[in-house]
Design brief:
This protein is of the alpha/beta class and 1462 residues long. Among the domains are: 171 residues, Rossmann fold (3-Layer(aba) Sandwich), CATH 3.40.50; 165 residues, P-loop containing nucleotide triphosphate hydrolases (Rossmann fold, 3-Layer(aba) Sandwich), CATH 3.40.50.300; 64 residues; 83 residues, Orthogonal Bundle (Arc Repressor Mutant, subunit A); 73 residues, no CATH class; 94 residues; 131 residues, Jelly Rolls (Sandwich), CATH 2.60.120; 169 residues, Jelly Rolls (Sandwich), CATH 2.60.120. It has 32 helices and 64 strands. The strands form 10 sheets. The chain has a 22-stranded mixed beta sheet. α14 runs parallel beside α15, α18 runs parallel beside α20 and α19 runs parallel beside α21. The protein is globular, with a radius of gyration of 43 Å. The N terminus is likely disordered.
Length: 1462
């Protein structure tokens, strides 16, 4: 199974559709004489009536063809085999042969036994009538009719079949019709489960399906008798159809009938009436399992559906509906379908669902980043995670697609198997212009908008208003003449726009790009012709060239300091209605400025007042001049009849408000953070429509004009942070519309008694400046009259509290932090109260009875608190904060209310009783976000696995008769910082999967504390035998936070309550992991950059291989590693932060391979290295090692690699059995041990060692050697060079490579000093000498930047006399400049080219040269662009020992050519 198929199989919770085409759906095996004309005949007729093709021998086989082979073919070609066991079934050898064949096919088909007037036990044990039948069969053995083995196969088949799940007529009270109906239901389920809609890429589908299933109520027994209609709503490409198909596949088989009506919108658009008739026919044929139903008209189809489906329990999926006519023709009323039916409608139109009256609507969600990355990877790489090389590029795609499955599929499918350069190019193109295939799908929603006005509104939002307040935009669009609020509502209904929790208009990036592309299309690509300008370059071009035209209706430009244009550039934009400038300066006169502005948003307005020549804007609705340089708004204010919103926030020089008499219809006044504002014009009280006044942080404002308090329209007044504000006038009580009053951090010392008259007040927030002492007579006699109050905040008011708080019956939130009262009045009457805050009430001793609806209680740092109310009835409590209340001993009844809770903070409560602690810890049910924080330094004793570290490892035990519901996690932490975050990494090392759980939002705790929480197995997906590694990760303040202990307890058969839905800041992140453990023998972790230390290896006593490649943050390897008696491989390649290994490591007698390549900070190999007697391979390339201990005692060491160890000074004694030493690029290395006894040495690599002068004794060990690489060793002595060159004996592949500053040795007699070819004649044999071979030498130069490479150099020996040629591949050219500093050295010393010398040998056993042969030798580099042979020489070897190197097994090492090649 390839990766993609495996993915599909694992992604779907239902079987995949089979590619096998079944000839029959059902094969009936029965004893004809018993049931053919009775039960089996009726069953066959019923199956046929329900549309099933069932095999029955007398119907399907002509009498002459009634042979065994055809029966077996029929069984093979059937999806289901039904065996009708009757009293005489076993009498028939034909039946028994059928049964054997059926049981052989059981792996690929369903087998369903029926017990018709027989007991299953008689069939299983062959008793009663079955015993009688087998007496005859046993007798047949003696008579030669049957083989003994065959009869035994019959018995085995009967036993196996009887053990299968089937149906017994007795269970239907002998009622055959009821029995047959039940069988039909089973067959229907089995057949439906085989026929699946194609659903690719089911990434992240499970949670979405579960949510829809909950709405549908399929698994809710209480809704089985009702018909439910559900909508799946979402923008195009969001995955609605995939979700609907999955529901159809997973749950369709449990219905009597099902139908998936695909692409309803498209069918209707293409054929309208005929299309609807076709859909009606499909619905009827699907559910009634018929293929011949025809419908004459839509009206006739409606009648047929209503009459024929009203008794059928059906699942109907209506996919991509967009018109009410479609639903009226298919599913107008619920009573058209039988009780228990479910109708699911997928659409982009919310209004359509409202019209048809669905019971619930599921809003399809975009994929999160993790899901998107996985889906994209399946399309781009055919695996579930990107190749490391493409990870950053993949994340760019994810950001572009914004979780839209359609886009992820389209882009991924385009990029598959393309090089990274093409990825870069395509991504740049996408950022300039949207993908056409994606836009085609998305544009359906735009084109489907009911009129041009809605389309214009969409374009306005896509260009200018994304992220802005919905109500604010509504006002602007209404000023443009667009019908509001219905315009935006339609866009929301069509899933083109969404509204955030903060009431901001949001739009998917691809929808935004589509809208902007539509604007471009309408103007043939010329910016000055655009109706809207939003792109910085386009706006700058148009304003710089003053090329604007009357077609332009909107402009947005976000400039920077110094961005400047002339006001005249806007002169020709006569239709300009929307203008948004940010940090832009306009110079010159404004008198020709457009006069039809609806919205003027100019952040950083540079002038001290609006110019006198700025034209009157009679249509202006919103004026936003935040962060302006204004001192006064207008010198001479002109009438702005339509202005509704004025926002001058952060205008630090503004000293007074404008005269509001010229702004008669103003509704919102926002002057937040106008630090110099000291005066508000008295005309403000005359504004009859003013609803919002925001004066927050106007620090010089002392009061408001008395006329202000006459306002009957103001609903919200915000004065927070007005430090100088001293008094609220008594007239406050006359502001009858006031609903929100926030007066925090002011100098107010008295609350006017008239406040009690504010019947509509819903939010009241009053707090004293923390530097002021509160007075005690602040409150009016009663607040009880504030019956609408929902939120009340009274902070820093000393011990003065209103006496009748319990009379505020509508109160939902009560904030009483930083007060000095000792007690509270009873709050139990506040039945709506959900959130109560008593933070830092230092003198509070007791909290009285609380309302049972309370969800959050915050009473942290109430140091005198010692008594809590009974919590046994607090069934809605979610979060409880009591940190620092060290006098508390318990909270009565809290253990009875734990099912609703998500968070308990009781750290610093040091006097809690042991029983109380145990009860809440053991009774905790919440999974996911939150947990319990307590003081303590130990894990509870009931935990299964505990470790004195931040890592826990365990194996999931077998759950015989139990269900694993999840894990309880705990850790003990010490902290010296007040805020830190902790997450959990749960690695399923068996399955290679990781779940990162960010379930603790914040740990605002200092000191020691214990945390306990839970994770559901619905998220973990652990199974028996899984090896699990859990790590607690401190995300911030590493130095100040230390996890001391960690524990895990497995939870079996216990209710666990998942609560992540409400906490969007917490999340689960899944990723494929390279972490693998097989039977505790292997740990394999790659590229885990959050792994600071290895696990405790005492948990892995049988570990054989440890691979921690690319774990860049790894700094510590657990010391127990040296005690692992079976460990043979340790691979720490690329662990760049690792500096050393524990001393215990070097005690290992089992490690054979140690890899430290790329551990760039690794400095020391301890002296104990020489005691690792099993070490065979040691690789430490690119490390910071300065010296290594003696390795002479490592008799098994074969390979030692120390390449690019730039600090290495010397290589000490080496073992005599060493085969390979590599120490290239070690610039400080100048001493190497004696090689005279290295009799097994094969390959030596010592390139670019500038300080090296010789390798002592190397000439004594040449007989075993095949390759010596010493290129770049420019200081070798002449004696050393001569010795190794003259004593070289190896023939064939390999040779000696030296720096090319040395010439061809002088003993070579045949030399071409300028080229790559030599000619010579082989002398006749003289004085009994034998020609043993040739020594060949050449000097070559190379020049190429980039990484160091090797390329073959061909040596062609032509025997011109015998017309034969030997082509060899025994030499390789080195080319490329590996490191910048080496490059500089070479440029200084040798010019731009590198020169190398090669010497090697060819044996005459291969060459077959004889006296008198004329020979040419040509040296030909493979890559002539970068390698040039400059000199060539040959020396004939007579009577010399020459050893053929057999290490290279290349079949083309030597290739003979004949005279045809000359």
């Amino acid at each position: 199974m390839d990766a993609r198929k495996a993915h599909k199989a694992s992604s779907s919770s239902s079987p995949s559709s089979s590619s096998k085409r079944w000839e029959y759906q059902v094969f009936l095996s029965f004893r004809g004489e018993d049931t053919r004309k009775g039960f089996t005949g009726h069953l066959h007729a019923a199956l046929a009536g329900d549309g099933f093709r069932a095999f029955l021998d007398d119907n399907e086989l002509k009498r002459a063809e009634f042979i065994k082979t055809q029966l077996e073919q029929a069984i093979d070609g059937s999806m289901i085999s039904i065996i009708v066991f009757s009293k005489r079934y076993a009498d028939s050898s034909w039946c028994l042969d059928e049964l054997v064949k059926i049981m052989e096919c059981r792996e690929r088909q369903q087998v369903f036994p029926l017990f018709y007037n027989v007991d299953a036990s008689d069939v299983r044990k062959q008793t009663c009538s079955f015993a009688q039948a087998f007496e005859k069969h046993e007798a047949g053995i003696c008579e030669g009719k049957h083989e003994k083995e065959k009869v035994q196969r019959w018995r085995n088949a009967l036993t196996q079949a009887a053990d299968l799940c089937g149906e017994d007529l007795k269970n239907a009270d002998g009622h055959e019709a009821k029995f047959i109906k039940k069988i039909l239901g089973k067959v229907n389920n089995l057949v439906n489960s085989k026929y699946q809609l194609d659903t690719e890429d089911l990434v992240g589908i499970t949670s979405r399906v579960n949510e829809v299933v909950r709405m549908i109520g399929i698994e809710n027994s209480g809704s089985k008798d009702v018909v439910r209609m559900i909508g799946i709503l979402g923008m195009g490409g969001i995955g609605k159809t995939t979700l609907a198909k999955t529901i159809y596949n997973n749950f369709g088989p449990i219905f009597e009938g099902r139908s998936f009506l695909a692409d309803v919108r498209e069918v209707f658009a293409n054929q309208r009436s005929n299309g609807l008739v076709g859909l009606q026919e499909q619905l009827l044929n699907n559910i009634l399992k018929n293929e011949g139903i025809k419908v004459g008209s839509v009206a006739e189809g409606i009648d047929m559906i209503r009459e024929r489906l009203c008794c059928k329990t059906a699942l109907v999926i209506i996919d991509d509906a967009d018109d009410l006519q479609q639903l009226k023709a298919i599913a107008r009323a619920r009573d058209w379908f039988g009780p228990g039916s479910r109708i699911v409608i997928t659409t982009r139109n919310q209004h359509l669902l409202d019209q048809v009256g669905v019971d619930s609507t599921y809003m399809a969600q975009a994929m999160d980043e993790e899901e998107a990355l996985e889906l994209f990877s399946w399309h781009a790489f055919e695996i579930g995670y990107p190749d490391q090389e493409y990870l950053d590029l993949s994340k760019r795609v994810i950001r572009y697609c914004q979780g839209l499955p359609l886009a992820l599929r389209v882009v991924g499918s385009f990029l598959i198997k393309r090089p990274s350069a093409e990825w870069e190019s395509h991504l740049e193109k996408l950022e300039r212009s949207p993908d056409g295939d994606i836009q085609k799908i998305l544009r359906i929603s735009f084109d489907g908008l009911p009129d041009e006005e809605k389309r214009e509104i969409f374009l306005d939002i896509s260009c200018f208003f994304i992220g802005m307040d919905k109500d604010y935009v509504t006002q602007i669009l209404k000023g443009c003449g667009f019908a509001q609020p219905i315009g935006i509502s339609v866009l929301i209904e069509r899933c083109l726009v969404t509204v955030s929790e903060e009431n901001k208009l949001m739009m998917h990036d691809l929808l935004r790009d589509m809208g902007r592309e539509i604007v471009r299309e309408k103007s043939t690509g010329r910016p000055e012709k655009f109706s809207r300008l939003w792109k910085g370059e386009d706006v700058i071009d148009v304003l710089s060239d003053e090329s604007g035209t009357k077609k332009i209706e909107g402009v947005a430009l976000h400039g920077s300091y110094g961005t400047r244009f002339t006001a005249q550039a806007f002169t020709n934009m006569k239709k300009l209605r929307l203008l948004h400038l940010n940090n832009v300066e306009l110079t010159g006169e404004y008198k020709y400025f457009p006069q039809k502005l609806i919205w003027l948003c100019w952040h950083g307005f540079p002038l001290e007042s609006i110019p006198d020549d700025f034209p009157t804007q009679p249509k202006l609705v919103a004026l936003d001049l935040q962060w302006s340089a204004l001192k006064i708004v207008w010198k001479d204010c002109k009438l702005h009849q339509n202005l509704k919103i004025l926002n001058l926030s952060h205008s630090y020089e503004l000293t007074k408000s404008p005269d509001f008499s010229k702004l008669p219809n103003l509704e919102e006044l926002i002057l937040e953070d106008c630090e110099s504002l000291s005066e508000v014009h008295s005309s403000i009280g005359d504004l009859g429509r003013l609803s919002l006044v925001n004066l927050e942080c106007c620090r010089r404002l002392k009061d408001l004009p008395l006329n202000f308090y006459k306002s009957k329209s103001i609903e919200t007044l915000l004065l927070n942070g007005c430090w100088s504000f001293e008094k609220l006038a008594e007239g406050l009580g006359d502001m009858v519309s006031l609903t929100t009053l926030k007066v925090e951090d002011t100098s107010i010392r008295q609350i006017p008694s008239s406040i009690s008259k504010l019947k509509k007040l819903e939010v009241l927030s009053l707090s004293c400046d923390e530097n002021e002492l509160p007075l005690t007579n602040l409150w009016p006699p009663s607040l009880q009259s504030l019956s609408s109050l929902r939120e009340l905040a009274l902070v820093r008011w000393g011990d003065a509290l209103p006496k009748d708080l319990d009379g505020l019956i509508s109160l939902e939130r009560l904030h009483l932090a930083h007060n000095d009262f000792c007690s509270l009045p009873s709050l139990s009457r506040l039945s709506q109260l959900q959130d109560l805050s008593l933070l830092w009430c230092r003198n509070l001793r007791a909290i009285p009875d609380l309302p049972t609806n309370l969800k959050v209680l915050k009473a942290e740092y109430c140091f005198e608190l010692e008594k809590m109310p009974d919590f046994s009835e607090m069934s809605n409590i979610k979060e409880l904060y009591l940190s620092g209340s060290d006098k508390l001993t318990e909270i009565p009844g809290l253990d009875k209310s734990l099912n609703s809770m998500t968070m308990i903070y009781m750290d610093g409560c040091t006097n809690l009783t042991a029983d109380f602690r145990k009860n809440i810890l053991q009774g905790w049910t919440s999974c996911g976000y939150g947990g319990i924080f307590l003081s303590g330094n130990d894990i509870p004793d009931w935990f299964d696995y505990v470790h004195d570290d931040d890592i826990v490892y365990f194996t999931v035990p077998r759950g015989v008769g139990r269900n694993l519901k999840g894990l309880t996690l705990s850790f003990v932490c010490s902290s010296s910082v007040l805020s830190h975050r902790i997450s959990f990494s749960i690695k399923n090392m068996t399955k290679g999967a990781e779940l990162e759980a960010r379930i603790i939002l914040d740990c605002p705790i200092e000191g020691y504390y214990l945390w306990q929480g839970q994770l559901s197995n619905d998220e973990l997906k652990l199974q028996d035998g899984d090896k699990v590694l859990i790590e607690i990760i401190v995300e911030e303040y590493d130095d100040g936070v230390k996890v001391k202990k960690a524990g895990v307890s497995l939870v079996w058969d216990k209710f666990m309550n998942e609560n992540m839905i409400d906490y969007h800041l917490c999340r689960y992140e899944r990723r494929p992991s390279q972490n693998l453990v097989n039977d505790d023998h292997i740990i394999h972790v790659e590229n885990d950059n959050r792994l600071p230390k290895s696990p405790d290896f005492s948990k892995f006593p049988n570990l054989e291989k440890l691979i921690l490649k690319g774990c860049k943050k790894l700094i510590k390897v657990h010391s127990y590693i040296g005690d692992l008696g079976r460990l043979s491989l340790v691979d720490l390649e690329g662990c760049t932060d690792l500096e050393d290994l524990p001393l215990n490591f070097y005690k290992s007698k089992s490690i054979e391979t140690l890899i430290l390549n790329g551990c760039s900070r690794f400095e020391d190999l301890a002296d104990g290295l020489g005691d690792m007697v099993s070490l065979t391979i040691l690789e430490a390339d690119y490390t910071a090692i300065r010296q290594i201990p003696s390795l002479a005692g490592l008799s098994k060491l074969k390979v030692l690699c120390l390449n690019a160890c730039r600090e290495l000074l010397a290589i000490p004694d080496l073992p005599k059995n060493l085969y390979v030493l590599k120490a290239n690029g070690c610039p400080k290395l100048e001493t190497i041990s004696d090689f005279s006894k290295m009799s097994n040495m094969r390959e030596l690599y010592l390139c670019d060692l500038f300080k090296l002068t010789e390798v002592p004794g190397l000439d004594k060990s040449l007989n075993s050697m095949t390759r010596i690489h010493m290129e770049g060793c420019t200081n070798l002595t002449a004696d050393f060079r001569n010795n190794i060159l003259q004593r070289w004996t190896s023939c064939g592949f390999g040779g000696i490579y030296l720096n090319g500053i040395y010439d061809i040795p002088e003993w070579f007699k045949i030399v071409n000093h300028v080229d790559n070819i030599v000619f010579f004649e082989v002398p006749q044999r003289i004085m009994g000498r034998d020609l043993k071979g040739l020594t060949i030498c050449f000097v070559y130069s190379s020049f190429v930047f980039g990484r160091e490479l090797e390329g073959p150099i061909g040596i062609i020996v032509r025997n011109l006399t015998k017309q034969t040629a030997l082509h060899t591949k025994i030499a390789f050219a080195r080319y490329g400049r590996p490191e910048p500093d080496l490059l500089i050295r070479r440029l200084l010393s040798t010019g731009l080219e590198d020169h190398y010398l090669w010497q090697g040998q060819l044996s005459n056993d291969v060459l077959c040269l004889e006296g008198g042969d004329h020979v040419s030798i040509l040296v030909r580099p493979h890559d002539v662009d970068f390698v040039r042979v400059k000199k060539t020489g040959v020396h004939l070897e007579w009577d010399k020992v020459m050893k053929e190197n057999m290490d290279n097994l290349d079949p083309h090492l030597y290739d003979w050519k004949t005279n045809r090649d000359f």
